[in-house]
Recover the amino acids of this structure.
């Protein structure tokens, strides 16, 4: 497909989000950068989401739906396949962008001759408290891949990229969690130039269920490791951090397994003074 120069295609996957998606779309339509299209990729919603789009007359919105439900990664790829823009961004259906998000990211991408830009965001708890994500800074002057192996730093809602990046990488549709982490790792491994904009340009509500789901994330974490085993295994510090992360996931249900993974972390020569293990701690 021929792309439209300077156009940013914003892909929003959704599944049964009729109660929250309209404010999300409005935060995209209200961007100070006006040369955009919004592609809502409906992953087989059953809550009447499609009826909302009978009322929306903004020509920049394109609604597309398929069935049955296949997950957010399928929806992202489905929407991006229909994108007409020179650049592609992804938004989550319950998050909100600051009005200058796309303008600042595109300026950074062009100024730094980057292929892929991501920004910070505010994670907002149900009681209104905020914390900045990513927790640890990203050094634009250093190798991106080891930093990304150490920690997931780029949520899908923070990304802006040249369309060729998505065309050559795409989202892995067998990931139900950590799909953003897997995607950015493959972008970095492919040799694309990444640039981090250290500003919170996204507001991302966190449900109570999401906060308490760390134990359930363990199978997805192991899946991520298997997908990037060579990259992890060739970098001892990154592997040690991964083992420590698994240890923390296991603490609530398997203290002995957690301790075994802690020892594996230490044995890979991660500085013990940096990460202290506590059987009672988090």
């Amino acid at each position: 497909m021929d792309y439209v120069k300077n156009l940013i295609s914003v892909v929003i996957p959704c599944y049964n989000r009729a109660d929250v998606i309209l404010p999300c779309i409005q935060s995209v339509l209200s961007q100070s950068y006006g040369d955009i299209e919004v592609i809502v990729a409906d992953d087989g919603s059953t809550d009447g989401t499609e009826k909302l789009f009978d009322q929306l007359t903004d020509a920049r919105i394109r609604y597309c739906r398929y069935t049955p439900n296949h997950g957010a990664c399928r929806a992202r790829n489905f929407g991006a396949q229909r994108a007409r823009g020179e650049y592609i961004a992804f938004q989550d259906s319950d998050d909100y962008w600051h009005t200058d998000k796309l303008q600042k990211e595109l300026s950074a991408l062009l100024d730094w001759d980057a292929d892929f830009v991501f920004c910070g965001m505010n994670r907002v708890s149900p009681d209104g408290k905020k914390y900045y994500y990513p927790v640890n800074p990203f050094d634009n002057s250093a190798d991106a891949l080891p930093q990304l192996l150490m920690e997931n730093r780029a949520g899908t809602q923070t990304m802006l990229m040249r369309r060729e990046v998505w065309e050559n990488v795409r989202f892995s549709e067998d990931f139900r969690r950590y799909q953003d982490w897997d995607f950015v790792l493959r972008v970095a491994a492919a040799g694309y130039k990444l640039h981090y904009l250290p500003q919170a340009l996204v507001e991302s509500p966190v449900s109570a269920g999401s906060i308490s789901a760390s134990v359930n994330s363990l199978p997805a974490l192991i899946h991520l490791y298997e997908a990037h085993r060579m990259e992890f295994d060739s970098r001892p510090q990154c592997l040690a951090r991964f083992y420590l992360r698994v240890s923390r996931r296991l603490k609530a249900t398997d203290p002995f397994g957690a301790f075994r993974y802690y020892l594996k972390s230490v044995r890979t020569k991660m500085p013990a003074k940096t990460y202290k293990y506590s059987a009672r701690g988090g």
